[in-house]
Design brief:
The chain is an alpha/beta fold. The chain has 4 domains: 109 residues, Beta-Lactamase (2-Layer Sandwich), CATH 3.30.450.20; 160 residues, 3-Layer(aba) Sandwich (Rossmann fold); 66 residues, Orthogonal Bundle (Helicase, Ruva Protein, domain 3), CATH 1.10.8.60; 49 residues, Arc Repressor Mutant, subunit A, CATH 1.10.10. Helices cover 41% and strands 16% of the residues. The protein contains 20 helices and 12 strands. The protein has a 5-stranded antiparallel beta sheet. Helix 7 packs across helix 8 and helix 11 packs parallel to helix 13. The longest helix has 19 residues. The N terminus is likely disordered.
Amino acid sequence: MSDASSPKRGRPRGSGSFPWRAFFQQTSTPVFVLGKGRRLRFANTAWEKLTGVKLADALGMVCSPRRHSSPLGAALAPSPEVQHGKPAQSRRPAPNHRSGPPWWDITFAPLAVEDGHFGIVGFIAVVDEHLPAAARKVPASIGTLREQHALHFSLDLFAGNAPGVERFQGQLRHAAHSTAPVWLWGEPGSGKETAARVIHHTGPHRERAFVGIDCTGLQPYLIESLLFGHGGLLAAGHIGTLYLKEPDGLPRDLQQRLADVFAEPHAPRLISASVRPSSEDVMGKLIPEFFTVFSVVELRVPPLRERLADLPRLVATLHPGAVVETAVFEVLRVQPWPGNIRELSRVLAEAITTAADGRVGVNHLPQELRVRAKIAPQLPKLPALNLETILQTVEARVIGLALARTRGNATKAAELLGIGRARVVRQVRALQGKAE
């Protein structure tokens, strides 16, 4: 007979009166408990302080990643592994901070029973909420990559002896050392985005990101979401320079919103680019406020035809290590280059690919460039193609084959081809008329 004072089998002494709620309330670690159906059954005071939600208001909340769930419910949702009884840890953006920081590292501990699991206990650790300045420094490896990338966009890209090129390089240097908005304009392919990157990587915002947006290539709602949506680029504070290509493609309400944001003193650097001067764009689709804010400094990017004296330097910059014969530059200098630097780079890339020994000669250039330089004969003009004539010839040939197969029976030939008999008869009469 057992002693009445001995503890009950399978239960530690005093466990029947263990104040588990008070135990969890004393810890500074946010703790929550999910019952069946992933419904919130308990949370301690630290959890209420972290989330800003009272437990009484959140009891019964379903923690699920589905769209109808609240942001808090989605952040606390257990992963599929946890629902199958396996402990796991997940990093989640804190509610209403989809881009982070802060993030939550949530440790899920499922409580298993013989026929499944009874519930889930969760512990939250906040990551990167109040990091000291030293911990926020960019790692040395990342810093090295940034420096190597920045070296590709130095002021030397626009070095040259032509007066217009020297002036433009000086303007770039001046723009890089200021924070004023810049409006770049020039012909397609002349290097407007490259000039914008030179300004960014030489300027005071080079430690932060350069973001380029094609305002005519993206739908306006995508641009607005990218900049102002949840976790938007402008809200994250990581942009050093925002580059807008053809900003006149933006709707007027979005232009106004951007003008309001970039009028603030701590806004990112803004560079706009267009094929037209800002004075012409403001007369078209730009609102006056946008024009006033974004065209403080206006620079014209010189086209390639004004930089032909610097072709060897440009070729070495575009394709380092390429061996180009002197005669090639003579051919390149007589071209009109409507596509400017972009077209030159494409032509050189094709020539380098064609050159088997790695040395680019005149014969590796496209035929039209050699013809224009008068070192290759003009190609004979091909006869003009008339689609209607070609189709009529093919139709007559096919109907003739069908008539031969059906021994001249127009009805059977029409059935064979799946067309009307009248069409076959018209073709027969046309052939007879030509024979006469």
